[in-house]
Specification:
An 8-stranded mixed sheet has the order 6-7-5-15-16-17-14-18, sandwiched between helices. The chain has a 6-stranded mixed sheet with strand order 9-2-1-13-20-19, covered by helices on one side. It is α+β, with helices and mostly antiparallel strands. Helices cover 34% and strands 24% of the residues. The protein starts with a strand and ends in a 19-residue tail after the last helix. The chain has 2 domains: 5-44 and 152-228 and 327-380, FAD/NAD(P)-binding domain (3-Layer(bba) Sandwich); 87-145 and 231-323, D-Amino Acid Oxidase, Chain A, domain 2, CATH 3.30.9. Strand 11 and strand 12 (196-198) form a beta hairpin.
Length: 384
Amino acid sequence: MKRDVIIVGGGIIGCTTAHFLTRAGLRVALLEKGALAQGATGNSFAWANASTKTGDEIYHRLNAAGVAGYEALAAEFGAERLGIYQTGALQVVGRSDATGFRAMQDRFVTLQRFEYPCEWMDSGKLKMETPELMLPDDAQALLLPTDMVIDAPRVARCLAETARKGGADIRENCPAIALIVDDNGAVHGIETADDQIEAPKVILAAGADTGQLLADLTGFDAFASRFPMREVPGLLLTTPPLDRNPLKRLLFGSTTNELHLLPAPNGGIRIGSDEIDGVVWEDRSEAAMRRGGVALLARAAQIIPNLLDCVSLDECTLQIGVRPYPEDGQAIIGPLPGSDGLIIVATHSGITLSPIIAAQMADLIRGNVVPDLAAFSLTRFPGF
């Protein structure tokens, strides 16, 4: 079988890229070792935003382009059909938290300079916006109206289906076994257990498995240990549907006792905390997850009245998502140095970035110059 490009990895980046490439008229094969939209895609907080990426303007603008990409997809296919929830977000911080409040003020100034939509809300406005929540009296907030909640598995499966209808070969339970290359290092395809697929371009969108997959496909074991990325586990709790969900927007900030919450696609609330993630860093047993779940519910109950009267831990879903985290905190997007035809995509912002990365891949595969990719090349890391 001959294709123009093979995508290895059936998460949200791989599926979105398959859609964009197929729509551009390219012959595409997508290989997923298990089921589509599992792994990080199926275990993500699923917050699409550029509001928290203010440390580097280039990276911020890449994420803002990802958010705009979801707006375009929602306009094309319908937000409800894809599972795109344009809820907006609130960063909430009390004035008594001097460090956090100053950081929020600095973020507001930076976002204004970057022309990213945001609005300052004083305590009075915030109370009117969140009448059903228990927030500190001195709390103020940033309203981030374009931030959105993504039902990532639904988006991935919907776009994979549009690609399939456009002629893409979408294969589940089909791991890539070996990269087919010639003596000059030029890519010629992928070997699977069933056949060989010929293609001059291969995109690896395998998330946290990228280093090991590179080692397996190339036979160069050092990739597994040298690839500049680490795995960051995150614990998420999702409540069952609530009869009256008091959470209308995504909420984060220091007054939430280091907590982030969003209205989940199932009608409940999804809860996470960078602090509580530490519970599952070394121990990912069911007991550790339950300890983390108890802590998440307790923190959320400080904000959401009567939460513990409405749900119990046993009614909730606990998940651990392993996020691929490049060593410098930004994305890896572009050709593997020294190869001819092998492209790597690895980022912890995959939910936000999938539409813009997919658009960039369509340009790159068609031979167009993508100047924004230079900042995200592997060449920025020693040894590459």
